[in-house]
Write a structure and sequence with these properties.
There is one protein chain. By secondary structure, the chain is α+β, with helices and mostly antiparallel strands. The protein folds into four domains: about 200 residues, no CATH class; about 100 residues, Calcium-transporting ATPase, cytoplasmic transduction domain A (Distorted Sandwich), CATH 2.70.150; about 150 residues, 3-Layer(aba) Sandwich (Rossmann fold), CATH 3.40.50.1000; about 100 residues, 3-Layer(aba) Sandwich (Calcium-transporting ATPase, cytoplasmic domain N). About 45% of the residues lie in helices and about 20% in strands. A seven-stranded mixed beta sheet has the order 16-28-27-26-17-24-25. Strands 8-7-9-15-10-13 form a six-stranded antiparallel beta sheet, with no helix packed on it. A six-stranded antiparallel beta sheet has the order 18-23-22-21-20-19. Strand 5 and strand 6 form a beta hairpin. Helix 27 packs antiparallel against helix 28. The chain is elongated and about 115 Å long. The relative contact order is 0.08.
């Protein structure tokens, strides 16, 4: 069994650092451990073992631009009298240890006054002395602890959760009325022959009427809007019979109070609406805890470094960037606008936009598109298009990349359509029958039917079942946007996988040597030479060569842009680069680094994608689905994929974003229900067009395009379990529908016969809801435990 890092819990693959009788995976984790120990904060590991976050090891910690007044004013919440208050978005916050550590920052850095975590929003608010600690230094300090703040155009907008505040007010009104209504209705049930209570009963009934009226006309208003929206679209959704039941229950109650026939059912009505609104509130909070609807603002930096012709640097807001300006882009930074390369050697990773995993070499004079990531030396670029005119922004804003849903086509609404007509038909027939016998009895029968037939249990069955399933899926790193997505997921019959970053590892590459046997002498020399290059392939090869850290002097170093570099190491002249640079002929569809020594060819290191573990078993488990592969890469790995997925329906390579979107449309035109799995902007159109879009994120900081589901990459081999659980959820809902309908058949039967008083109908209705909720809770946990480890 592989060793785990004491701090972050990750498996130790290569680097193994032993310190204080503990093992760490990198210097960053060891450093954080030392910091915590020095400041007596080692309780961090007692709260949650291996709960730390591995500090980022890439060169993306340049936060100096935050000290520019125009930029810091967009970031900070408050700054006066030497005290600054700032709120950072930190997605990697994941457990109680994180909260404890981040709220103990004042013990580590005396310039910090206090810090407070909002776990739901994944934000950290920090108050610090700005005379002693700069904003950029605070960001670096958090990054070194492993909690790198995300700062981009989206976070600068300071949009908090989008929970409708009016929904909370409606819930509060219903809760207030329900609690007090129960209190004022209590005397009706215990008064007996008490003269005092009997003399004040009309006052109590008036108070209950006054409490229930705002609940009916304000708190329940969303149900009326939904019912009207459905009727306008010629669909009788589940809210139509609910609205009918609300009005009948309210109307019957008013009638009983006015005629002194009885106390009415105001308390029952308020209780039902309160619990329905409570469920809706929790559901909305679940949706808002993750960002399923993303735009380019989540990807763009908030500021850029502008350079004048004299070389003077100035940090400015991205929005202030104009055509003709020159900007500086450092290693691992995003190209924010379409531009022309002026100085430096560009190694551009466009995989986020195109899906092509290879790096593109750029030389001065070449055009570079927004959205690429530079790897290597510093670049100087001249802006040729503003932010809103860049390729990335135009691609994102295409209408084809936008998805519109009305939410009317659900299983619940389909059943409720027939349910409503049947209930109304029964009510009409019963009303006609009893009107000929006894008009008073007729009103009692009609009221009892409509009250007992109120589809509250029917309406609760799907939300409660899917709500439980959503929480269980979320605990297993499969975050579903809404309950409608689970229904669509259960109907999927076709799966489309993006290759790069989805079924392949984002940060792992399979490298193997092709050529004659190479000596340790040469390998050490090659690694010494590789250390001097910023090219991405050279960096990957440097990490791959597990040699001792013995570095030798380099002389006569020369780099030829787009081809490679050469130098002399220990009296031998080496060339590292392309095939032509070393006098060889390149093979088509291959990514490789060629090496020669004293003009004699030694061999080449061939780079292949590293596929995720257990994919072969996954595709066997998905045998009932049609599998398709799309990739922006070339077809070099088609033989590997055909072996991995022998039953694949189609494999398409060199696909741009529009190609992927069109392919999804073609499948849907054939009547197939499609789920698309992708990880970048190049997949955004296909994700939105598909019936279910599943965005893959290998870590919490990863940008994910708009989607229906956010899934962590390491869980892809368990995709079949998520799909099976979704189908089980539909079965559970169907069973609860049967239970609900059985209650309605029994209740309506008694009501039609005239043997059910409206009071008993009002009691019978919530009993059916309680039965359904209990059943869904137990059945979802039982089915989920079949696939995942569930704590009951």
């Amino acid at each position: 069994m592989a060793e785990q890092c004491f701090h972050c819990g990750q498996k130790i693959d290569k680097e193994r650092i032993l310190f204080d009788d503990k093992v760490f995976c990198c210097n960053g984790c060891q450093s954080v451990y030392e910091i915590l120990n020095v400041h007596n904060l080692d309780n961090f590991y007692k709260i949650n073992k291996n709960s730390g976050v591995r500090p980022s090891d890439d060169n993306t910690t340049q936060f100096e631009y935050l000290d520019t007044p125009e930029i810091s004013s967009k970031i900070v919440d408050f700054s006066e009298g030497g005290t600054t208050l700032v709120t950072f978005k930190i997605p990697v916050i994941h457990c109680s240890s994180c909260i404890w550590l981040l709220e103990s920052l004042h013990n580590i850095n005396k310039s910090i006054k206090y810090s407070q975590v909002n776990f739901t929003r994944k934000t950290l608010q920090v108050s610090f002395k700005d005379e002693e600690l700069k904003l950029s230094e605070l960001a670096k300090f958090l990054t070194n602890l492993g909690y790198k703040p995300v700062i981009n155009l989206e976070t600068a907008d300071k949009k908090h959760d989008n929970l409708d505040k009016s929904l909370l007010v409606k819930l509060a009104v219903a809760g207030f009325a329900f609690g007090n209504g129960m209190f004022f209705s209590f005397p009706e049930y215990i008064s007996g022959n008490d003269v005092w209570l009997h003399s004040y009963k009309n006052l109590f009934r008036l108070i209950m009427f006054l409490l229930a009226t705002p609940v009916v006309f304000y708190s329940a208003s969303d149900y009326y809007k939904s019912a009207w929206y459905g009727l306008k679209n010629k669909i009788v959704n589940i809210d139509v019979p609910i609205v009918l039941g609300i009005f009948v229950l309210y109307g019957r109650s008013v009638y009983e109070v006015v005629t002194d026939y009885g106390p009415g059912y105001f308390d029952t009505l308020c209780g039902l609406l309160f619990f329905m609104l409570l469920g809706k509130t929790f559901q909305k909070r679940t949706y808002n805890s993750l960002s399923y609807d993303r735009d380019y603002k989540s990807f763009y930096p908030i500021a850029v470094t502008k350079v004048d012709f004299d070389g003077k640097q100035e940090n400015i807001l991205l929005s202030e960037l104009a055509v003709g300006d020159r900007i500086m882009v450092r290693n691992q930074e995003i190209i924010p606008v379409d531009a022309i390369l002026i100085k430096g050697e560009g190694n551009i990773d466009n995989s986020f936009i195109t899906g092509e995993s290879a790096y593109i070499t750029k030389k001065p004079g070449d055009k570079i598109f927004a959205g690429g990531k530079q790897s290597g030396s510093v670049l100087e670029l001249e802006v040729i298009k503003s932010v809103d005119q860049s390729y990335l922004t135009q691609l994102w804003n295409k209408e084809a990349f936008k998805k519109f849903e009305n939410g009317l086509d659900t299983m619940t609404n389909t059943i409720s359509k027939y349910f409503t007509f049947v209930v109304l038909g029964i009510t009409l027939v019963a009303g006609i029958y009893w009107s000929r016998i006894d008009m008073e009895k007729m009103f009692q029968v009609v009221s009892a039917i409509l009250i007992v037939a109120c589809p509250c249990a029917l309406a609760l069955s799907a939300p409660f079942t899917f709500g439980h399933i959503m929480r269980i899926l979320g605990r297993n790193k499969f975050y579903v946007k809404d309950t409608l997505t689970i229904e669509r997921l259960a109907k999927v019959d076709t799966l489309v996988f993006d290759k790069t970053g989805t079924i392949t590892e984002n940060k792992k590459t399979n490298i193997h040597f092709v050529g004659n046997e190479i000596t340790d002498f040469d390998l050490k020399n090659i690694k010494s030479l590789l250390k001097n290059s910023n090219h991405p392939l050279s960096k990957s090869l440097y990490d791959f060569l597990e040699m001792n850290d013995d570095y030798f002097d380099i002389t006569d170093f020369e780099e030829i842009s787009g081809k490679g570099y050469q130098a002399k190491v220990r009296s031998s002249n080496y060339k590292i680069g392309s095939a032509s640079f070393t006098g060889q002929k390149a093979l088509n569809l291959e990514t490789a680094v060629y090496i020669s020594k004293d003009n004699a060819f030694l061999g080449k290191f061939v780079f292949k994608n590293e596929y995720r573990e257990n994919l072969s078993q996954l595709f066997k488990n998905l045998k009932h689905y049609k599998i398709n592969i799309l990739s922006g890469d070339n077809a070099s790995e088609q033989p590997i994929l055909e072996k991995l997925i022998p039953t694949a329906s189609a494999m398409k390579f060199n696909q741009n974003p529009e190609n992927k979107l069109d392919f999804i449309k073609e499948l849907q035109d054939k009547g197939e229900k499609v789920a698309m799995l992708g990880d970048g902007l190049n997949d955004a159109g296909a994700l939105k067009q598909s019936n279910v879009g599943i965005a893959i994120a290998d870590d919490s900081n990863t940008f994910t395009p708009a989607s229906d589901v956010i899934m962590t990459g390491d869980k892809i081999p368990e995709l079949d379990k998520y799909l099976k659980l979704s189908k089980d959820a539909i079965r559970i809902v169907k069973i609860t529908f049967v239970i609900s309908l059985c209650y309605n058949v029994i209740g309506i039967g008694f009501a039609v016969s005239g043997k059910m008083h409206p009071l008993f109908a009002a009691i019978f209705m919530p009993i059916s809801s309680i039965t359904v909720v209990t059943f869904t809770t137990l059945s979802t946990w039982i089915r989920s435990s079949k696939y995942f480890k569930i704590n009951l």
